[in-house]
Amino acid sequence: MLPFIIHSDDVPEAEGRYPAPFEAEALTFGRDLGSAAGVERLGTFIERLPPGRRTSRLHAHLREEETVYVLAGAPVLRWRMPEGPSEESQIRKGSFVVFRAG
Question: What is the pLDDT of residues 72-94, one digit of tens each?
């Protein structure tokens, strides 16, 4: 197989956790497809989100954009605009979400 062609089943799934002092909270289970394929500037993950867990804490990136495409289920998206209150939106299978840099 060519090194730039991978299959998600061949990439080990790992449970996500934050570093101390937040390591007690278990996050998603994910497969880092981008690293497995050797990319350097485009992160690509498949994440499995069990009920009651979250993918990450509310955060923002100065230079990176982030996208989410929902393959199954109906997760709740928590987000906020700069200087605004956090809000929640119900998303579902087929939803494509874009977080712009900054």
Answer: 999 999 998 888 899 999 999 99
**Are 19 and 31 contacting, i.e. CB atoms less than 8 angstroms apart?**
no
The span from the CA of 43 to the CA of 33, in Å, is: 8
Instruction: Give the chain's length.
Output: 102
65 phi, psi to nearest 5 deg: -100, 155
Quote the radius of gyration of the chain (alpha carbons, Å): 15
First to last CA, the chain: 38
- CA distances, 78 to each of 13, 24, 52 (Å): 24, 21, 14
Res 13 pLDDT > 80: yes
pLDDT of residue 48: 95
